[in-house]
UniProtKB/TrEMBL annotation:
Top-level lineage group: Eukaryota
Protein's name according to its UniProt entry: Glycolipid transfer protein domain-containing protein
Residue ranges with Basic and acidic residues bias: 1-11, 30-39
UniProt region (Disordered), positions on chain: 1-51
Pfam families reported for this sequence: GLTP (PF08718)
Amino acid sequence: MVERERSEGEAARALTSGPPQQQQQEGAAEGERDEKEGDEREEEDRGDEAVEWSEIRLAIEELSPPARLKHGGGGDGMADASSLPTLRFLALSHLLLRVLDKIGPTMAVLRLDVQRNIERLQKLYLSDPAKYSTLTGVVEKEVKEGTARKVDSCARAVLWLARSMDFTIVLLQSLEDSEQQQSLAELVEAAYEVCLKPWHGWISSAACKIALKLIPERKVFTSLLLGMGQDRCALKDEIRRLALLLRPLLDDIHSMMAKFRLDRIKST
């Protein structure tokens, strides 16, 4: 009786589990599937790592609603200067530096000016992030103290960083809109004439005029702007998107500076 029950139990186990060879085959197949899925995940991870975002794409992300919420701005995709977080403005300014670097040493004078303005504004922000969380807070503080027009003021830093962004976005748009026959030097000069020259004294203008002679070829600059795996059509689309996002903010900053009568400040 016991022997029969044991035999029946073994038979039942054999029916449910299958022969040993079949179990081994199924285990091997499952292992291969797991290994294949693991390889696919690794390929996806490597693909993500290989994608290097361009400065333009990073700026678009910085201006997007999720980034605005992260840095304390509004979530509607638009904000005026009073709610523009200082931290996000600094992030955009750092991206501006990287674009200027791609033009090469020609932009050394402008780049140095941008770098100094970033450092000045950043130093004030870090001294009290809550107090100087917005650009309006920064400018109002110096207006009340009577220091906004000083050469080393943060109000001036905000103004010149905004003007430098004006220059950059006009240059990028002309790169996207203009005929291929125009050289990068011509595009840079045109953007400079509109955005920066009206506010530069003769010393700054002379330095920029000399620098224009050393600008690289247009195709070299364009290739440097491209993110890894990005084509020129995608670059044009991103330039348009960046202009749509950035222009209203720059206009609001200039309006704020005009309200405090700081919009006509010039350099030497």
